[in-house]
Amino acid sequence: MADAKGIHNLITYYAERGRMLHRSLESVYERLRDFQVCVEGEQVLGCAALQISWKDLGEIRSLAVAPSQRGKGVGKILVRRVAREGRSIGLKKIFALTYEPEFFRRVGFVDIDREALPTKVWRDCVFCPNADDCKEVAMVMELRKGGS
Question: If you ran DSSP here, which 8-state letter would residue 17 be given?
């Protein structure tokens, strides 16, 4: 519970810069159990959430790293944690919609056509304020036993 405000602050920082969608503090609390965090003392250095989309598919959401921690491996650690959790519950793939495709490629994701994610597109994207002019790149990572 102590990490919720730190998670919200990171998401807000990037949302205000157009790098991710806003989340209310209430929605962070509602989905708090979905989050992995990296902390130092009481400071949240990074966060990422896993949301289950279908029987074998999950989405990595709200991946955010404190500006002072970028390039130090925090994002990679969070992706590995989310992938490990996804594997442990039987997911075969995780996907992301991102403005940072180079980072995701470095950690094992590959580009896919957004139309390959119909449940995401019809469930969430239709309500997004950027739906008509979305610049996010759709990406997916295969989850294999013993690896990412």
Answer: T
